[in-house]
Amino acid sequence: MKLIHLTDPHLVPLGAMLFGFDPAQRLRKTIERINRDHADAELCVVTGDLTDEGDFASYVLLREVLQELRVPARLLLGNHDSRENFVRAFPGEPRDENGFIQSVHDGSAGRLIFLDTLVEGFGHGSLDDGRLEWLLARVAEASDVRAYLFVHHPLQPIGLPHFEPWSTENWRPIMQAIVSAGNVRHIFHGHVHVDVGGTWSGIPFSANRGVAHQIIPHFTRRDADFVEDAPAFDIAIIDVDGVLVHRFEVSDRHVVEVSAEGWVPEGMQ
Ligand SMILES: [Fe+2]
């Protein structure tokens, strides 16, 4: 199963700018690259902060920009989003029985579970009001297959003081429950605007710097420096043996082609 993990496009209304750049233009360039090189992916998951201020006009713009994407998309919400305006713009996106933007996709390599950690008006994340119970039920009913989680807020620490006030509340019991379930193989998250990956009690996680602005990681400072680096997205290759995550930068770097003439794939000699 080939997946695309895209995050934090932070769209603003048409004609507006964010920190002096155009987020929609950055998303368009990213989509062009995906269409060119990865149109064979099964799904493109966007892990939240779809817009910067949650306004309806930005979701309308997002809808327009995403029409160019040749891979089916699944959209998650982040702390910068508005559930109400998202649903107005994307009424067909799946929701759980409580109205949260949570759903599953049973794909060729297992069950993908999409979470909604948005707490309207706040920066931190939560799985309260039945969201954690929904997650654990979806994991349990697929106990005979591998499960992969997609979420905006990290469910585990990432070691950066800047994000401590905006982490997921009660993250430790949530992670302990996920570990106990026994079949969760990877967590893909957004929110942090840095490239980071690791494990928590044996559960691997990964996040990329995203489409909009990036943050320079500081391990002791609470404040943060925002920069405009090249947008990035991840390609995840998932099979029965495990998960591979490749990061792609959307830049105009100079490319030198190396001929593969005479090259024979391993095992074919
Ligand atoms: Fe963000």
From TrEMBL:
Pfam families: Metallophos (PF00149). It comes from the Bacteria. CDD domains: MPP_GpdQ. InterPro entries: Calcineurin-like_PHP, CNP_phosphodiesterase-III, GpdQ/CpdA-like, Metallo-depent_PP-like. The keyword Metal-binding applies. Keywords: Hydrolase, Iron, Metal-binding. Belongs to the cyclic nucleotide phosphodiesterase class-III family. One of its GO terms (molecular function) is metal ion binding. This is Phosphodiesterase. Residues 1-194 form the Calcineurin-like phosphoesterase domain. Gene3D superfamilies: 3.60.21.10.
